[in-house]
Specification:
The chain is α+β, with helices and mostly antiparallel strands and 102 residues long. The protein has one domain: OB fold (Dihydrolipoamide Acetyltransferase, E2P), CATH 2.40.50. The protein is 31% helix and 25% strand. It contains three helices and five strands. Strands 1, 2, 3, 4 and 5 form a five-stranded mixed β-sheet that branches. Helix 1 runs parallel beside helix 2. The longest helix has 17 residues. It starts with 5 loop residues before the first strand and ends with a helix.
Length: 102
């Protein structure tokens, strides 16, 4: 992938994109041959590719792990789109007053 097509942003801004559900895939890219600095590259749902600036490898590793985990776990988060499938077990079923009368 050419570097010209990748937009650079702050790491905290890239993390906020994953929290909003915009990130589809996350990768880790070395910035130098000594492997002391790296950047996190993310592909968005719009097809755009964004990355952090070159940061210490430990920070880039932590950011990429958090982002990958959030993408994996985000399918378990209740969102507005799938709220129709959620039921409240406290309000479903017979009324307590009807049960007491029997």
């Amino acid at each position: 992938m050419s570097e010209e097509n990748i937009r650079t942003m702050k790491a905290r801004d890239l993390e906020s994109l994953v929290f909003f559900g915009r990130v589809v895939d996350v990768n880790f890219m070395w910035c130098d041959d000594k492997e002391t600095r790296a950047k996190v590259v993310a592909k968005l749902d719009t097809g755009e590719t964004v990355s952090t600036e070159c940061i210490p490898k430990r920070a880039a590793g932590k950011i990429s792990i958090v982002m990958k985990r959030y993408i994996t776990w985000s399918k378990f988060i209740i969102k507005d789109q799938n709220i129709g499938n959620v039921i409240n077990i406290d309000t479903e079923g017979p009324d307590e007053e009807e049960e007491e009368k029997k």
